[in-house]
Amino acid sequence: MKPKKPGWPIPVHDNTLYSKLMIDRLEYAWSDEEDSVNWEGQYWYGGDYNRLYIEGEGEDVVSGGEGGEIETLDILYSRMIAPFWDVQMGGGYQREYGPGPDKERGFAVLGIQGLAPYWFEIDANLRLSDDGDASADLEAEYDWMLTQRTILQGRFETAYAGNDVPEFGIGKGFTNAKFGLRLRYEFRREFAPYIGVSWNKYLGDTADLREAEGEDTDHTAVLAGVRMWF
Amino acid sequence: MNKQSDPKYPASFTRRRFLQGTAAMAALAGLGRLAPAYAWQQTGNLVAEKTVSGNTDIFDLTIGHTPMDIGGRSANPITINGSIPGPLIRMQEGREVMLRVTNNLSESTSIHWHGILLPENMDGVPGVSFPGIEPGETFIYRYPVKQSGTYWYHSHSGLQEQLGHYGPLIVDPAQPEPFEYDRDYVVMLSDWTYDDPYHVLANLKKAEGYYNYQKRTTGDFFKDVSTMGWGPAMDKWQMWGQMRMSSRDILDVTGSVYTYLINGLPSGSNWTGLFRRGEKIRLRFINGSAMSFFDVRIPGLKMTVVAADGQNVEPVPIDEFRIGVAETYDVIVEPDGDRAYTVFAESMDRSGYVSATLAPREGMTAPVPDPRPQPVERGMKSMGMDHGSMGHGDMNMDMSSQNTMDQDSMQMDMSADNNSMSGGMDHSKMNMSAEQGSGMQHDMNNMGSGSDWVLKDRKISHGPDNHGAGAAMVSPNPMNRMDDPGIGLENVGHKVLVYNDLRGLHPWPDQREPQREIELHLTGNMERYMWSFDGEKFSEVDGPIRFHHGERLRLILVNDTMMDHPIHLHGMWMELENKHGKYRPRKHTLSVKPGEMLSAQITADAPGDWAFHCHLLYHMKAGMFRVVSVA
Description:
The complex is a heterodimer of chains A (230) and B (631). Chain A contains one helix and twelve strands; from the N terminus they run βββββββββββαβ.
């Protein structure tokens, strides 16, 4: 599209680029074994159709143990292919640190993100690691509006591993299921503190592997945190 | 409450009140001159000073920022000759005007003369008609005045309109008016935000429903259960859930951030139009909002609509009217008591209102009606799915029985379904149409409208991909809604103006049958705040919509979205094809309801390039804009 005459502007600029940093979860989690700080967020920059996404999730143990994990840190090109759906592709990174030597791996990522019928926010990815390990993950969120500002969010996460990756404590098959409930209050759309609970259960071979290492296979935590965006 | 003693209001308030009164009286007397422009730093009714040179009336307008108080808070609006709205420009049909517009802003600006027929290069749309007016520059608009009525003017640059860059425009007719009145007031409605309009737009882009504080809650679901029963309540939830849409998206930007204004003044300032008992008052309502549809009534007074969009219509007595953004309605009222009346304008979503007063003396007020309850909720009609015989868009009725659902679903055209991700219409029940067979092939369009509707047999066409990713829904069976007062007004129990009430006073000179049809779909994707025609934003289309010079054509607008859109064509009239045959009302802006299809005849007699767009400012900015090229 070019101006009608030299020196004339374009009458309507509908291609403005925007960016949004959404910190979905920044929370302190209390549980029987350990306390941790958990985080999850995403940043996007772009237009209506094409965007660059940086997404990440992790935890850092602050008492009752040590170490932590950057579970995922993905850089993705995102393209809207249908009114509620983006296809995303790019690279991912995972890192476990302390106790013991750090472990890390990289991925090629292919995913979809969007709003499923009945207003479920979906983020699903296929991953192929640099060692050739294949996996898939799915995250779904649902917001119950209790009032215009009080919102109960349900979250569900699961993952499937194509093969054993004992180094990261992963067995073939469904690895875990994680449920969360978070009650937030939106003082502003951009700022909403919350309280909540989460429950994680390791499944199948992954559960066996973790049990063998003396870990619990389920894990309940009480949470307090804040959701913000800019 | 006596606002003059309110410490929130500065000392200038008393003076301002005085000036308003004087300005109002000057306006009613039709005086073109009040006081030197330097005396004003205020809001309210000002009349632009006019100098006369032969057959030309000359106006000088200066656009700048003027710090002032709006509703008790300091603001820095864009003003024209120091006021918002800008001064009333009063033209005379048959003369020529010269408008010298000086830009004192630090950015480019423009004035578009909304609804005025004029040469292409005087239309004032940067990038379409001219390059815009650069800072420090004076641009001279000059054109013959070939029409009369109530109009307005506003910036067509960026989002300046949201900052106060608009004003009223009246053209006095060459011939006497076909109706009588003793007094004449402009009532210009608008929406004001203290926030930066670009920030407002960014919020809409980043967070769907950012300004909507009347979304459905879990409590609303259980309310439905108690009134409708579990089955229908679940059906309703399921239907909207399938589409991933909110039945409560009525206005994108709401009273949560807007202060609504009448003639630049919020309710508390009590703009007052004076009258003497027994007089007929002409009120020229202009919706100069960026984003707000208003429902207007004057409790205790019948209003008689005598003109729409500046053009005289057969007088129609009403109790209330909805005014789309950029529309104008002239009404005549006859207050007979020695009492005050409240002019009450509620935003369509009921998130706010603004009131003013008609009174025999300054300082009087009348009770302000209780705003009607939130929320208003969209029904199946908004998806072009309503069962015509139901007659109402009321969800409770539409969904009241399983049986109704089934009937509705049998009438679904399944064209929406070929993209399971995008259509959102793949409601299991809707698949019944396939099973029930073509025996149910019904004449949906015909229902509720009578057989005089020109589009009754029309098959609508969507693209093979349902307009693509930029369109979150398509209306499978859009219908005639010209007898429909619109959402929230269906059952108010008094007469609300509908488009079918508008009957032109005369048949217009060009009565040729349209030689060509152009069908355009109004499309959008709320999730990303994308707005478009036929699924394509302005930046995505190659060229203009082409009209052949001199041709007579039929423009068909199909609203595939959940929102009402006021669609405005520059440079030419749109003759709305309602039930009045050749007495079509001429309009510059057509408000198209969700799920509605309507048509207008156009004589393409204005060579050049013209803007054509949704007049919701942020919809236009997001891409719901086209250039129409007449050659």
